[in-house]
Design goal:
Layout: E1 8-15, E2 19-28, E3 31-41, E4 47-48, E5 51-52, H1 55-68, E6 72-80, E7 85-93, H2 97-111, E8 119-125, E9 136-145, H3 146-159, E10 162-168, H4 169-177, E11 187-193, E12 198-204, E13 207-214, H5 218-229, H6 233-242, H7 261-287, E14 294-301, H8 309-317, E15 320-323, E16 331-332, H9 339-345, H10 350-357, H11 371-456, H12 458-469, E17 474-482, E18 487-494, H13 497-509, E19 513-517, E20 545-546, E21 570-571, E22 601-609, H14 611-618, H15 620-637
Parallel strand pairs: 1-6, 3-16, 6-10, 11-14, 14-15
Antiparallel strand pairs: 1-2, 2-3, 4-5, 7-9, 8-9, 11-12, 12-13, 17-18, 18-22, 19-22, 20-21
Helix pairs in contact: 1-3, 4-10, 5-6, 5-7, 11-15
């Protein structure tokens, strides 16, 4: 036997009075494959009055048999046969589906022999037969007692298997046979030899037509043979296994000198079996008014102990009778079982295989599982799903609540720290608020003070720089500084032009002065009477630097006098580019005309200074002032 398999299967379970038959089938495309099967004995004591009397005991035995054969079952569809079930066709007026359901519900007690309230049934409306009354419809009805169904469900629960359906044996077997009978127009009879009964059923063009149980099953046959031989049924079975009897051997080939009592007993029993079979065939054909003829019979079940039984029945009935073997109907998983072992048991497995194939159908019909069971199962699933959802919601709420509590604790800690910091800074903030208005009111005064402070630092620097650049022969009479334009205006006296331009060169070389030269607005004329109340001089205008003729110069001052007969001419305007003067350069290059040198030159010119920016950018004190201004600006804007 095959040992343990981890995979779980949906199985078909065929229960007889003393045997369990199970199959597990998989599907690969359109091909069905027999994965595993099991056949095992079960004690007859678990059954009573056609139902399971000991569900717990039977459930335990089912688990044992499946485990021994390496089958782990998840869901199962179970068989129901013999007198435990009713299968019949009833006629009703043609009506809608809802009206048909209501009519059957109201009249069910007319069709079944079971007590009211203890009936489980299902039905199917059959296709109309040829020549049938168009105003009527045929309905296939299957029914059993509710207590029988309850005992089967309890058995499956004890075995740890979910019960998905309960189906009549003949209908289950047809699931396996149906595809091979497509296109067959005559009726087909099924002979299912079970333990205590043989189920005869007839199908036409894929539809169930009739079912009749014959009270002559495998156990009954052995009992009758034993009775004729004066032995027990068990001894009769041992005789048949030890010396199989082929009923198809002609009488003239039998050796009369041998002991033929077993053969004669078996022929006697099967003659009665053949009579019941022929009677059932005739009954079916008469019901169909001889328009539906039985073309062939299929034999399966527990008759493997009787060699060539199908051929014997064929000879006796005149109909084609064929052994139905599972190994000829399905592929099987090689390596799991030997073909010999499969062939030995395959005639017992068509019902179990048909039950298993029912799992692959989307809609299961003629199922005797009560609707209340599905309702309970659905309610149970809903409860389980609801509990899972509630658990998930609870876990989510716990996680969110825990996370929120953590965040709240963190925020409370931050708030506490901020409150402590605020309490510490509150005195300074109060003092700041008290002084803010005073700071805003005094801001204009601060600005004036800062401006004066900046400017008063410029003059000493300017005077120092000019003093360092002026030579001994140039005198400074006046100097002015315009802070808005950074312009320095100077006036003074020079001994001669060389001294004056040497001064210009020195200023040009200063890092604090730029654009050194004579400005457009300079107005310097020729020297006039100067010192000591000295003489007056005629002046000239029209240029930035001019020379005038002096009639009588004053003491200490020498004017630049023009040549005789010429009027006073100004020097040309000239702005000195930085670096233009070099030592030894000719002064004549900067004059465009000749003139006579006087004893002194009165001059006036402007220069631009970078001194203020240099001081502001370098002086730390002024930087502090700027920072103070920024602080005041922030205070005002706060």
């Amino acid at each position: 036997m095959a040992q343990g398999a981890a995979k779980k299967y949906d199985v078909g379970l065929d229960l007889t009075s003393n045997e369990l038959r199970c199959t597990a089938i998989s599907r690969r495309g359109k091909e069905m494959i027999l994965e595993r099967f099991a056949v095992g004995e079960i004690p007859s004591s678990v059954f009573a009055a056609g139902r399971v009397a000991e569900p717990g005991q039977l459930g335990s035995r089912i688990k044992e048999v499946l485990k021994e054969n390496g089958i782990v079952a998840r869901r199962a569809i179970i068989s129901l046969s013999g007198k435990a079930a009713i299968t019949r066709i009833i006629e009703l007026p043609k009506m809608g589906a809802a009206q048909t359901r209501q009519a059957i519900s109201l009249q069910i007690n007319q069709y079944v022999p079971f007590p009211p309230g203890d009936t489980v049934y299902d039905y199917k409306v059959l296709p109309a037969r040829e020549g049938a009354n168009p105003a009527m419809q045929e309905v296939l009805l299957v029914a059993t007692r509710a207590t029988t169904v309850d005992s089967l469900i309890a058995t499956m629960r004890s075995a740890g298997i979910e019960c998905e359906g309960i189906k009549i044996t003949s209908l289950a077997a047809w699931n396996l046979i149906e595809s091979s009978m497509e296109g067959y127009t005559s009726a087909v009879g099924l002979i299912d030899m079970r333990d205590t009964v043989t189920d005869l059923s007839f199908f036409l063009k894929g539809q169930f037509r009739l079912s009749r149980p014959v009270e002559l099953g495998y156990n009954n046959i052995l009992a009758k043979v034993g009775q004729l031989l004066g032995v027990s049924a068990q001894e009769a079975e041992e005789y048949l296994k030890a010396d199989p009897v082929d009923l198809t051997i002609p009488e003239d080939e039998i050796d009369p000198t041998e002991d033929n009592r077993l053969r004669e007993a078996l022929l006697s029993v099967f003659s009665g079996f053949v009579s019941e079979l022929i009677r059932s065939i005739r009954y079916y054909e008469s019901q169909a008014q001889r328009t539906e003829r039985v073309g062939k019979m299929l034999l399966f079940g527990s008759g493997a102990i009787f060699p060539n039984l199908a051929k014997y029945l064929e000879d006796q009935t005149g109909l084609e009778v064929t052994d139905l073997s599972l190994s000829s109907m399905l592929q099987y998983r090689q390596g799991t079982y030997s073909l010999e072992h499969l062939n030995k048991e395959s005639s017992k497995l068509p019902v179990a295989a048909g039950l298993c194939l029912e799992h692959f159908k989307k809609k299961k019909i003629l199922n005797l599982m009560p609707p209340s069971y599905y309702t309970k199962a659905i309610n149970k699933q809903i409860v389980v799903i609801g509990l899972v959802i509630l658990a998930c919601i609870g876990f989510w709420y716990y996680s969110v609540d825990k996370d929120l509590n953590s965040k709240i604790a963190t925020l409370n800690s931050d708030v506490g720290q901020k409150e402590g910091e605020a309490a510490r800074l509150k005195p300074a903030a109060d003092d700041f608020d008290a002084n803010k208005s005073d700071i805003v009111a005094q801001r204009p005064k601060f600005n004036q003070i800062f401006a004066l402070f900046k400017q008063q630092r410029i003059w000493p620097e300017i005077m120092d720089e000019v003093g360092n650049r002026i030579n001994d022969r140039v005198w400074l009479d006046q100097i002015d500084f315009e802070s808005s334009t950074n312009t320095v205006s100077m006036e003074g006296v020079a001994v001669d032009r060389v001294d004056l331009y040497q001064f210009l060169i020195n200023l040009d070389r200063s890092p604090y002065f730029t654009n050194t030269g004579v400005s457009e607005n300079a107005d310097t004329g020729g020297g006039g009477g100067g010192g000591g109340g000295g003489g007056g001089g005629g002046g000239g205008t029209g240029g930035p630097i001019g020379r005038g003729a002096s009639g009588s110069p004053g003491p200490g001052t020498t004017a630049i006098s023009a040549p005789a007969g010429a009027r006073t001419q100004p020097l040309q305007d000239y702005k000195l580019p930085r670096g233009s003067f070099q030592p030894g350069a000719s002064i004549e290059d900067f004059f465009q005309r000749d003139f006579q040198l006087a004893e002194s030159i009165v001059w006036k010119f402007e220069v631009t200074t970078d001194l203020q920016n240099e001081i502001v950018n370098q002086d730390t004190a002024v930087q502090d002032i700027i920072q103070i201004e920024e602080v005041i600006e922030d205070v005002v804007n706060t």
